[in-house]
Amino acid sequence: MEIRFAKEDELDRINELRKQVNDIHVEGKPDVFKPGFGAELQKFIHEIWNDPDKKIIVADNGEEICGFAVINHINKPENPFMKERDFLDVDEFCVDKEFRRQGIASELVSFIKAYGKEQGFHRIELNMWEFNQGALAFYEAAGFETYRRYMEMFV
Ligand SMILES: CC(C)(COP(=O)(O)OP(=O)(O)OC[C@H]1O[C@@H](n2cnc3c(N)ncnc32)[C@H](O)[C@@H]1OP(=O)(O)O)[C@@H](O)C(=O)NCCC(=O)NCCS
User: Which residue's C-alpha comes closest to atom 17 of ligand 1?
Assistant: First the structure.
């Protein structure tokens, strides 16, 4: 499995994986996520591609793109409450459902960690939806720890 940065002609395939994630989100949190994977969401991959702060990473088995991740360099300046924060955020992450539990996501995380270190980052962050317990189990297995929570109640 080769883990590397994506090529522009792979964006349509990456959109197939983005649709898998969107479907999971729609099913798990239908009060938030819009069903379908319409033109607007499909086009968004080009905004990601053209954003100098973002990078798309793929897992390529030689025949197919099996998984991808989007990483985003975030800098939050110091404010009266907080120190400056400069980190890599994992914006999107998916392994094709046909290729799960083969260690591909783990390889993607290893690549992101090595890249982050090489670029001088000391911290990688991500956020996820609580219903997605499979993703939580993976992220914890990969070494991520929860440091902050969003909570809600319906009234
Ligand atoms: C979460 C996801 C990326 C994991 O990818 P993966 O390639 O299957 O993960 P790995 O094979 O590297 O898993 C490594 C370890 O993580 C844990 N793990 C992974 N998926 C898990 C699951 N669904 N349930 C419980 N533990 C899981 C296991 O400990 C696993 O080791 P094991 O297979 O030896 O038991 C994949 O299931 C996925 O793409 N899900 C849909 C999209 C999604 O939810 N994305 C994240 C939120 S945006």
Answer: 138
